[in-house]
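Researcher: Next sequence.
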Amino acid sequence: MVTLAPSSHDRPILGSIYAWSGVAIMWAFWVSFVVFLAEPRQLLTWWPLPTINQGDSLLHPLAAGLVDLGLIALFGLQHSLMARPWFKKQVMRMPAAFERCTFVHMANLALFALILFWQPLPHELWNLGNGWMRDAAWVLFAVGWGILFLGAWSFGIRDLLGVEQMRAWVLGRPAPQPRLKTGWLYRWLRHPMYVGVLMGVWVTPRMSLGHALLALGLTGYVLIAMRYEERDLARTFGPRYSRWRGVAQ
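Model: Next structure:
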């Protein structure tokens, strides 16, 4: 059992550091992940982290593929298990304010591990070359990430990253109760963040074998995660969720 009970004097400092450090690292990851996928030539000469098709790998392609699948599975398990109510209750067993922040920290570890230990499989499956199709692909790539971040904003990014929950704990207040998110992009899309991620990983002017493996793995994760997420939402919000779900197709 985790015991987190610092004095009231320490709460503002410790709580703020725990919450905002996770936010800062998460933003650093998303910048790194976009570069990881896009591989902009202007940055590759000095970019310190691996990219999806650049990096040293001494592994046989089959072994490299298995490592990559393991990294995708690590991300999927972390996201899926730590989001489940039973896991929070039976395994995490910590103040509610720390649950989301801890989820963010663990997600950061899993996601940066995916970048740092990724094994390139650079064999090209398609390359649109130069011209309007290439430009259109990059525009849709950017739109996908825009949808992801607008989806996070629509959800309530401070709630999503645990800042509001930690703020309540710092002030000695009860953690805010879960709310069904139905505003902004959620008026038209049931899962805007998932839509953004899938566009971001699939829409590219050049698709390598490794990139396709990542896209397929994340697609599998999304399909599984949506099922469990919708089940949890139905249990939490009941008929209200069912009515909204019938509108936001």
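Model: The chain has eleven helices and two strands. The mean pLDDT is 87.
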